[in-house]
Structure formats: C-alpha cells, structure tokens
C-alpha cells in the first residue's frame, strides 16, 4: 500500500483522495454526495499520483485504506468483506468463456474490484455497480476513473434489493454480496423476501442472511440468457433458510456449477468461513451441475473441473455440501459412526435462565435437578474424560406428572413454577409444544459427549460422570454393547482423526456438525477399536 496508508487515516481524507482521483467523472452521484464532495479539502497531487499508479498496476489502495480505517467488526456488521484478487480473477475467467456481456453489474460493488477486472476483460461493456455505503461508492468511482473506465461506468448509491436494473442489454451479474445475519435485517425487508419469493413459487425463511436476498434480487433484475457468478458464505448449501437459494439455483437462476472454497484456503483474510462461488445462466436447462471443492487458493485458477451431479440428485437432497466432497471410499475395517452410535443433540430447554439452576430453584428437591453439560466449555475443559460432574450446573427436569410430590417438595415445586411463569417460561415456543410445559425431558446420560459448534474440531469426551446434556452438545449412544476399552478407543480416534473440514464452516469461523453429519464420519469398526486401544497402551 506504499505510504498512503500512513498518510490517509480518516474517512474524510479517503473521500478527498477519491475525489482527487476523478470519482466525480463516474455517473450515479446523488445530490447529497455531490454536496459532500464539494465541501472537502483537496488532497495533494503527489498522493493522488501515487494512488493512481497503484490502481493502474492492479492494486486496490483505497480498499486497503478503507479496511484499515474500519475495523473487521464494523465491516462485518455491514457485510463489507472485500474479495481477494485470485477469486476475482477466477470468476472473471469463467465469465470470459460465456457469451460476451453488454453490461456488467456488481450488486454490492465495494471498491469495484470485480468491475475493474471486468473493465479489462470486456472493453466494450457498460460497468454498473450498486453500493449502499456512500464512502465505498466514492471509492468505486475513483478506482474506475483512475483505471480509465470512468466514462462507461455508473455507481448507484442504493440498495440492490430495491434497485431497478432491468435492461435489454445482455448482462453479467458478478460480485460478492454482503453477508449480514438475519437479526440485523429490518422486518420490512424480511416481509419483502417472503412476498417476492412467493410470487416466484418459492418458500423463504425470515432467518435468511442478506446474501439470500441478493440472489433473489438478481433473478428479479435478470433476463433469460444473462449469466452470473456470485461468491457468498457456503452455509446456504445446507441450512433450512438457504432453501430459497437452492430452489432458485435449480430453477430461475439456471445453475451451472458451484465451487466450494474451504476455510483452510482462507478465501477472506478477516473472515474464517467456507465460501461458495455459484455460477449460472438465467433460465438455462441443465441436466447436470458441476461441483468442485478447493482446499488451497493456488488451485483456484478458474471455475473449471469438478464432478457432474445430476439435477435430480440435487432436487432430492436437502444438504448439498456433502455432494461437493465427491464419493468417499470407506477405509478397510472402518464404518460410519452412525453404524456404531446414534447421535442426538441435547434437549432444548426453551429458557435456560429458568431451567438451569439459580436462586429461584434453590428449594427444589435434588431428585429433579440433574448435573448437565450446559456449555461447550464444560467438555473442552474436561478433555477426553469427564469424571467429575460436581462443577457442572444442574438443570431442572420435572416429570410430566407432578402429583406424586407431596408436602414440602410439592410446595417448593409450585413456588418454582409460579416464578417460572412470571418469566414467561410457559409461553415460549418450546414449552408450548411439550405435553407438560414444565417438563424439559432431558435425555438419559450419553456414554460419549461431543461439542458440535466451535472455531475448532469437535471435542469428544467419555461421560464417566453420567452427566446429562442440553443442546450445546451431542450425545453418542452406542447401538450395541461396547467395552470401556472400545469406548475409550473410539474417543481417542475421534479426538485425533476428525478436523473442521469434516463439518461446515459459517461466516465468522464457526464450524458446525449436525447429528447426521457426525454419524457419517468414518471410524474404526469394533474389532479395530480393540486393536486401536492396545496400540495406545
């Protein structure tokens, strides 16, 4: 970044640099933006020249300064994660093999990294970007002007979801839609998602992240024959609220392929996540879709390769990430964990503040309080063996029939339930769907417990303390009788033989294993477990 980053340290200075680079040459300025641009103090010509030389050499000094001024946390809340050059090049390489576009649209343009490369790849195409952040919009205009693409470019300050970008021009939609979690999205937009998806015949979940909205808005603005490539977090491949993207991919988007980039490749420097590049041609009919998985960035030169999966297979699957791994051969003597154990997530209490012991449960009889794993740290601290449950918190688990309690015990339970009702414990979704709202229904102690969501591989623990567990952990329940040595050997193998790449990683770096995913892990069979234990001794 040369010494620009040391000189430009505020957003006002960055805007001044953008104007100095010719940002005003690019159309799309609002009246408010124009007024702001005229109020800034001009920056030195030396800095402008230095920045222009860096931009023309293929660098993004403005984006790097922006990323230094705003912390990763600030940018994550706005979904501003800028795309590394190797990914941009790979996506444009694919686009260059398609029918040449007359217009290129980046729905969340940022500093215009995609449009800059598109300008070189498609010298006759109009370049259009949409950006909700005024400073980022100014940077995009400056970069395009400095690179010599200013007069055929337009940066629209606004929200891609409400932008009207319909055109008769053959269009390429390409970019990195912002990743924003659903709890930061206004209710009016959630209603918009459900309504617009419904008009296309699809179901939409209000738990969807912002990138799901951008796939839908792309469909709304595109015409048959348009093409596109979007990179997002890969969680939509599997989660229920990603169903809309999967449906759009198979239907209106005309999905052609998906390249999954594992977090080990570090696709985004400030966000440890599994990424998915989705490429498509609107309304095209494909019998098969190419799926590919990349572990190292140097392997991502283009979007070619992978195996072809028939459309019918995708239609029948609710979770697609497993298909990107290709077929796996089970090693000799190994079996899937699900053949040995059932994996169950712990019970959902519906209101931990009520059902995990505290002052309001102090008078309850001991026989309704159960030492339980209530946070992943309980297992992480225990390691391979949980031998002592005395430090675990207790969970209140009343039977459905409380008439069997009498005297002081019954009075204590009634006092507790009265307090629980004051806290709304009886009115929650979980409680209202129980046969008795006060009965949590903890599962019996599992011989092996496992964490299932963390920024690390799962922790597997022998549960010698007979602790219960709530939904922060999975319980492994053997389908047949195993010796203690075999169970210990299974924990040893799972501790050393499983990594984060066996699960799915969300934006933010959390890796999650659903029970069905954990059951598909390859582990030694019973005979090998006995041999494994002997080798460890």
Spatial sequence of strands, sheet with the most strands: 3-2-1-4-5-7-6-8-9
- The dominant shape is globular
Average of the residue pLDDT scores: 90
In terms of structural class, how would the helical and strand content be classed? Answer: alpha/beta
The number of strands is: 22
* Termini Cα gap: 55 Å
- Helix-residue proportion: 25-40%
Radius of gyration using CA atoms only:
27 Å
Question: Could you please describe the fold and organization of this structure?
Answer:
The mean pLDDT is 90. It is built from 22 helices and 22 strands. It has 537 residues and is of the alpha/beta class. The protein has two domains: 83-324, 3-Layer(aba) Sandwich (Rossmann fold); 334-351 and 365-396 and 441-536, Alpha-Beta Complex (Adenine-n6-DNA-methyltransferase TaqI, Chain A, domain 2), CATH 3.90.220.20. The N and C termini lie far apart (55 Å). Helix content is 36%, strand content 18%. A nine-stranded mixed beta sheet has the order 3-2-1-4-5-7-6-8-9, with helices on both faces. Strands 11-19-15-17-13 form a five-stranded mixed beta sheet.
Strand-helix topology:
Blueprint: H1 4-7, H2 11-20, H3 31-39, H4 45-56, H5 61-69, H6 72-77, H7 85-96, E1 103-106, H8 113-121, E2 126-131, H9 134-146, E3 153-157, E4 171-175, H10 187-199, H11 210-221, E5 227-233, H12 243-250, E6 255-261, E7 275-281, E8 288-294, E9 307-310, H13 311-316, H14 321-324, E10 334-336, H15 337-340, E11 341-345, H16 352-355, E12 369-373, H17 376-382, E13 385-386, E14 394-396, H18 407-422, H19 429-432, E15 448-451, E16 453-454, E17 460-463, E18 468-469, E19 473-478, H20 484-497, E20 504-505, E21 511-512, H21 515-519, E22 522-524, H22 526-536
Parallel strand pairs: 1-2, 1-4, 2-3, 4-5, 6-8, 12-18, 13-17
Antiparallel strand pairs: 5-7, 6-7, 8-9, 10-22, 11-19, 12-14, 15-17, 15-19, 16-21, 20-21
